[in-house]
Design goal:
Distance between the termini: 25 Å
Largest sheet: 4 strands, mixed
Shape: flat
Number of helices: 17
């Protein structure tokens, strides 16, 4: 997609800033509520990770190996669900025919099952982008939503449209080894408790504001799938992207000319090459770094310090591997040596990602680790520019070096 296609694709936000602003949240809330209902009705399909979690959480050893109907019958009374499907019977209902309520220790399991996945979040994000774009195209004197509660909290408006005990479907394959989409899969119909529904909506982060300037840069710099992934990362940031003037001014109290965190986020969007294979991962790392960055501190110094820690972790992993080749694990444990928490190859990959990010975003390489020359001979050192898309690689390389 060309950079100018963002508005035509519905990726360019209006000047309102936060999604769900006045005049938009009225029609937007029902559309998001419908998307949540469709997601629940489509159903959560149990994979190996889900079965492993439920086995441990609900004390159901061997759950993954059970036929779907039997697994449904065992889960139903614990989750307060009604099993359906071939051979499911009526397990999970009380003597009066009502559905059993989930046990107290099943709350964590329900919270896990109804955590919004990437597919739901992308669907909702498209609605938010389209609503912002529609607001930017509407007349300035358009009539705002008459309900101030809806205008102030999109999450609350959506939650009001999702009554407690809205039905959700859980799919279990007929045997533990069959694909999740097997045609004879058993199903559990589960009323979602009000608290679980509230958590699901809250985790969509509908009221998190993405400032218009940042959203505009995202829509112009990135193709649609990447832009949506970036918007989700921004929505997950642990700090407010739209800082108040008082907060922004705190960075200048000591006479320093540091950029605010929103400015540094915008700098990343504008300067990081979209073709970089680690673009979204680098953004998540950048947002995490900015969250921990004290007012007025140097982003370059903070990034260099993190790079040095990863470089050191790679060296320590190399040393452990070398010692393990000469001594067995029992001897190393007696010597107080523990296995490294991070794989050396993974640590170096992230070091190279930081190198590319520092060059692109901050315009200079990260401060080198003084001990980096002592890394294993076959380990990459220095500042690796990484791999680029052949179609755009030359342009991106010139941007990094300019």
């Amino acid at each position: 997609m060309e950079r100018g296609e963002g508005r035509r694709k519905g990726l360019t936000p209006g000047p309102s800033g936060p999604s769900g602003s006045s005049g938009v949240s009225g029609p937007l809330a029902p559309r998001i509520a419908d998307a949540v209902r469709r997601w629940l009705a489509t159903g959560v399909r149990f994979g190996p990770e889900t079965c492993a979690f439920l086995e441990a959480q609900l004390d159901l050893p061997g759950l993954a190996a059970l036929p779907g109907a039997e697994a449904a019958a065992r889960l139903a009374p614990l989750l307060g669900a009604a099993p359906e499907g071939r051979g499911a019977g009526t397990a999970g209902h009380g003597k009066d025919g009502t559905t059993d309520q989930p046990a107290a220790d099943a709350e964590t399991a329900l919270e896990y099952l109804f955590y919004p996945d990437t597919a739901l979040r992308l669907t909702v994000e498209r609605l938010l982008v389209h609503a912002d774009w529609t607001a930017s195209e509407s007349a300035p004197d358009s009539v705002p939503d008459p309900d101030p509660a809806i205008a102030s909290s999109l999450s609350a408006a959506v939650l009001r449209l999702l009554p407690p005990d809205s039905p959700a479907v859980l799919h279990l394959s007929e045997t533990g080894n069959e694909p999740q989409h097997a045609p004879h899969a058993a199903r559990l119909v589960l009323p979602v408790p009000g608290w679980a529904m509230a958590q699901l909506v809250r985790r969509l982060r509908l009221d998190r504001a993405i400032p218009a300037g940042i959203a505009e840069a995202v829509s112009h710099a990135l193709p649609e799938p990447q832009a949506l992934a970036v918007r989700l990362a921004l929505r997950d940031a642990r700090f407010e992207l739209a800082e108040t003037p008082a907060v922004s001014a705190a960075g200048y109290s000591a006479g320093t000319a540091r950029e605010s965190r929103p400015d540094l986020v915008l700098r990343f969007i504008q300067r990081m090459p979209p073709s970089d294979p680690g673009y979204v991962e680098a953004l998540a790392l950048w947002l995490d770094l900015l969250h921990d960055l004290p007012p007025g501190a140097s982003a370059h110094a903070a990034l260099s310090a993190r790079r040095e820690r990863l470089s050191r972790a790679a060296r320590e992993a190399d040393e452990f591997t070398e010692r393990l080749g000469r001594l067995n694990m029992e001897i190393l444990m007696l010597q107080g040596v523990h296995a490294p928490a991070l794989d050396a190859a993974e640590a170096r990959r992230r070091v190279r990602l930081m190198d590319r990010m520092c060059l692109a975003v901050l315009g200079r390489p990260a401060a080198p680790d003084p001990a980096e020359e002592g890394m294993a001979p076959d380990a990459p050192s220095g500042h690796d520019l990484g791999a680029f898309d052949p179609a755009t690689g030359l342009d991106d390389l010139m941007r990094l070096l300019s």
